[in-house]
Structure formats: C-alpha cells, structure tokens
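User: I'm new to structure prediction. If I give you an amino acid sequence, what do you actually give back? Let's try with this one:
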Amino acid sequence: LENTFVISSWAPAAQEPDVRGKLPMLVTYNAEDKLKDVNTEWVSTSREAHPCLTIWQLFSTVMLWPILQGARRDQTYFCGSAVLPANGHDLSFMSGLVAAAELGAPFPFPNNRNAWADYQRLRGMMLGIWA
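Assistant: Good question. You get back a string of structure tokens that encode the predicted 3D arrangement of the chain. For your 131 residues, that looks like this:
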C-alpha cells in the first residue's frame, strides 16, 4: 500500500508568502522510490511518525502499552496512534482525553452519550480494563 499527500496544497504553513509556490511539501507512505527524482530541499523519514498496522503494533497495543500506562506512580500515561490498535486523528485525540483524565482532568463532553461510550471503550483498551 502506498500513498502520497501534497501537504503544500492545503497546509496553512505552506500558504505563507515566503513558502507558497516554492517546492512541494509531500508526505509519502511506501512510495519513496517513485519520488526519488522530485526536487527536494530535504527528506525526513521516520517509521515511528505514523505507525503501521503490523502484528507487533496490534500485539503491543493489547499486551505492552496497557502495562506501561500509569507507570512512575500513576504519573506517566501514553497516548496517540502509536499506542492504539488503529490510526486516526479522532482516536489519537480521544486517547489524549483518556491520558488527561487519568491525570485528573475531567472528561470535556459529559453530556454526550456517544462520546462517553467511545471514551469508555477506548479507556478500557488503553488501560487493559476488559469488560
């Protein structure tokens, strides 16, 4: 599976007058060979920047990360797509709410029944609380 996003076509930072129209800003997944002849100012790669849905990723979200949550006397919680069984901005956001709540912050949508249900479901996954 490969994919390339042209970030310079929509990202607010790419619309600044000193940046707009210079070089394209691309984010690519598994398509590096196709872009090797693109005129670039720099290339940055990181497998950790966007997790792949591998067996290890799925295993670690169920077996490893829940054990690490609350480490260091309930002061360390992990959130974001690296600790989740799937990728997505909404899940990453919700995982931040779970981590924040474990540190004492209130859930910001207490009157939204669906949001609360999603939050509780994700909290269970992240903390290893299986109902």
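You can read the tokens as a compact description of the fold. Here is one thing that stands out. The radius of gyration is 19 Å.
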